[in-house]
Design a protein that fits this description.
This protein is mostly helical. It contains four helices and no strands.
């Protein structure tokens, strides 16, 4: 539940264009999520996707690409788990 709440706070910051606060919140969410779910759990992909989108909006394209690719890889890994 705390993981979802932390993610939702980041979404709120994003929606009001407080990008730095959103990124800070997402980093906290990822640390918390990694401790609970494991570092490579596919549920964390949504955090990486949002972080990538925020960096894209900030025109920090290298960081955006990094996080969006990480989200994509984690999502693909999660699909393999679900399909097997």
């Amino acid at each position: 539940m705390l993981l979802i709440n932390n993610y939702n706070i980041a979404l709120l910051y994003h929606s009001i264009k407080e990008y730095d606060l959103a990124i800070k919140q997402l980093k906290k969410t990822l640390i918390f999520g990694e401790n609970i779910l494991g570092k490579d759990h596919f549920e964390l992909a949504r955090c990486y996707k949002l972080m990538g989108n925020i960096y894209k909006e900030k025109k920090e394209y290298d960081k955006a690409s990094h996080f969006l690719n990480k989200a994509l890889l984690m999502t693909k890994k999660g699909l393999r788990v679900c399909l097997t």
